[in-house]
Write a structure and sequence with these properties.
single chain; 107 residues; two-stranded antiparallel ribbon; 4 helices; 6% strand
């Protein structure tokens, strides 16, 4: 939007510089060139775009930085691999091993 308006701005300005900013009317009164209203409209759109982007000192407070994704990512490559894994892995023990390791009642 800004680029289109800036293109029109310069095109209209060049035309106004060549032909003049005012035209003589037979009544003897000078009026603005008909292209001047389009020039001013393009200029107004450019100013509005700059305001929305926070490039105006008055609207700078309205433009807030977004949250950075760098804070969420682990820096260690191994940590990145481990963080992608599913639920924690619990080692499997067969019932035979558990019976052998537990002390039985002494008789």
């Amino acid at each position: 939007m800004y680029a289109v308006s800036e293109n029109r701005y310069w095109k209209f300005r060049d035309q106004l510089d060549r032909e003049g900013w005012t035209v003589h009317v037979p009544d003897g009164d000078d009026k603005d060139h008909p292209v001047a209203k389009h020039f001013y409209a393009a200029e107004r759109v450019m100013i509005q775009c700059l305001d929305r982007l926070g490039l105006n000192p008055l609207s700078r407070d309205k433009a807030k930085p977004t949250k950075s994704n760098n804070d969420d990512k682990p820096t260690d490559p191994m940590e990145a691999i481990l963080s992608r894994s599913g639920p924690a892995i619990v080692p499997f023990r067969s019932p035979d091993t558990e019976e052998e390791t537990q002390p039985g009642p002494e008789s």
